[in-house]
Write a structure and sequence with these properties.
This protein is an alpha+beta fold. The chain is 16% helix and 34% strand.
Length: 171
């Protein structure tokens, strides 16, 4: 029922509009072994092959909240009654993973901002495949996650204001 090796944990619960709740879910994502010469050359490089925590949010009604008894620190799969996982999907076409109305959203400060592509948190460079920015989404799925990663082959510097915005958002 639950992935005990990498459990899906409720790390925060916020009350939102109309008596509903937003659950923050976190799970350690195990990167599958990367093959080929790149994996040999990149061994020991910071961040390469490391397991990373993924985060996603799910909204539940007050009725669902009461029925499942969700609490901060709970294993979501155990409470939900079936195995759930976070799944990472990357693409160069953001409309494959986001609806048009999701390309702008409100950040933690309540400002409407453009969705930014995947970036290197140290250099603030956008990761690209053939000079096209890579977009990433983390979704809640029932059952086994089937991650779809894209290996970048170029990067692009972004404007300072966008980099600062990314820091505020924590993306």
């Amino acid at each position: 029922m639950s992935n005990s090796k990498n459990p899906l944990i409720i790390t925060d619960i916020k009350e939102i509009k109309n008596g509903a709740f937003q659950l923050t879910l976190s799970q350690t994502i195990v990167r599958e072994g990367q093959q080929g010469i790149t994996s040999i050359l990149m061994q020991g490089h910071p961040g390469f092959g490391e397991n990373k925590a993924a985060v996603s949010w799910v909204n539940v009604s007050a009725k669902q909240m009461a029925a499942f008894g969700f609490k901060k620190g709970d294993n979501f799969s155990e409470k939900f009654g079936t195995e759930c996982n976070l799944q990472i999907v990357e693409t160069v076409n953001p409309l494959e993973i986001y609806r048009e109305n999701e390309m702008k959203y409100k950040n933690k400060l309540g400002q409407t901002v453009e969705r930014l592509p995947k970036m290197n948190p140290q250099t603030k460079e956008v990761m690209c495949l053939n000079n096209k920015p890579i977009y990433r989404r983390v979704n809640l799925v029932v059952g086994e996650a089937k991650h779809a990663y894209i290996q970048h082959n170029s990067t692009v510097k972004i404007k300072a204001a966008e980099a600062a915005e990314a820091n505020v958002l924590g993306d």
